[in-house]
Amino acid sequence: MNTFELLFFMIPRLPASKCIISICVCYLFILNCYSQLSESMHSIPNDNEWIRENDALHPCITDDEYQTIQKNCNANAFSLELQTTVTPGSVLLNWPLQAAQALHDCSYYYISAYVDQNVATGAIQDFNCGTNTYDSHRGTDISTWPYNFYKMDNNLVLVIAAATGTIVDKHDGEFDKNCATNSMMANYLVIQHDDGSRALYWHMKKNSLTTKAIGQAVLAGEVLGIVGSSGNASGPHLHFEVWSGSTVATRIDPFSGSCNSLNQKSWWANQKTYTETAIIKASVNTTDLVLPPCPATEIPNESSVFQIPFQGSGLPAGYAKFYIFIRNEKTGLNADMSIINPDGSNFLTWTYSSPSDNKTRIQGWSKKLPTAAGKYIFKSVYNGMTCSTPFEMVNPTNSNNTDLNSLCRIYPNPSNGKFVLETEQTGVFEIYTLFGARLFQTEIHNHKSEFNLPIPNGLFYYHLIQNNKLVRSGKLHIK
Ligand SMILES: [Zn+2]
Fold this sequence. Notes:
By secondary structure, this protein is mainly beta. 10% of the residues lie in helices and 35% in strands. α1 packs across α2 (19-36). Bound molecules: zinc ion. The site of zinc ion (ZN) has 7 residues, from loops.
């Protein structure tokens, strides 16, 4: 591991008293950069500066807020004449989050805290007899990851109804980029199910909530809003809480396990495994990813198209950065990475061995890119599961008016920003800068779409995504 680069990355976050060390490290980094850069790594195990979680002193929902919700829900349920005969547990819950169509990652979350099963003050235990919870936590915190503010800004993770029911409380319009405890209310929804049980969806993005009003019905799977960081939140996550009845005291834990003392059986239609250890994202980057302090939006610096010869910022000529994002890393497990040639053979392989247990780990390497034009795959295998991402090497002379094949055509190209896109299938159309920053994204509903975009002059890349897969990419020349 390249310690110098890791330390360099952390310098802006060191307190003033360590500035002399910082300067030394910086100097050492400069001394070493030329010898280390060609195979340099970038390693970020879970770190509280980036992985932000609520705790006992900073609960997701305060006691006063619980009283308000309970009062509102009961008053609304009464006036709506909703069923009061409770037969809890007859409704099965689906996972309350869903990746948006534009998100191509292998997964998008980790569990930052389960329900606390230990009622004693100062003691914690989750349903599985582990400690992934905080004192008195009554819900399941599902954190979006990686790039949780980026995901929020771009509406990449949807909150969906876990079960069919009726909206019995709703609140929107609150600030949604909190990083610490505050006195603000969250943007939230409460749904009462057919069996009288209730589900709370907490911390949502401002003005993202369904336009449906209190009293209206929602179906299981219906979009309720976007994951945010409103109310008492230390970063974007969904606090999902289930009551079997009409008061907070009736809370249950939807996960069944030997240390769940609230309810015996699982309330999930398909209960997920406790840790879900996996690589949930693999990416090819034009340079290091950037994780600024909360609540600034992260800068992924990813791309799926690299022009030959490629020069990334801070990288040797012809190199890119290859990243894996591990959820619930386990000591001793190996991750096997490969860059696969267009003909299916390996261009390059390497292995990473997990040195410690971590809820999250970002691991990146600078590796030499292929020099022949074509479509490649960056593949990673961890804990028996594969997570891959395609990327393409393109020749600079390839620019022409038609695309790589007849499935997708853009004309004129070059254009002044006014062009026509013809595709055989519908999907999502995106435009990126050469450095991987997304400038534009829209869903394509027609086989022929006309655009007139205020894009500055220059060379860009477009992506056409269908069913969460990149199916076409190419150059877009604006002049
Ligand atoms: Zn919570």
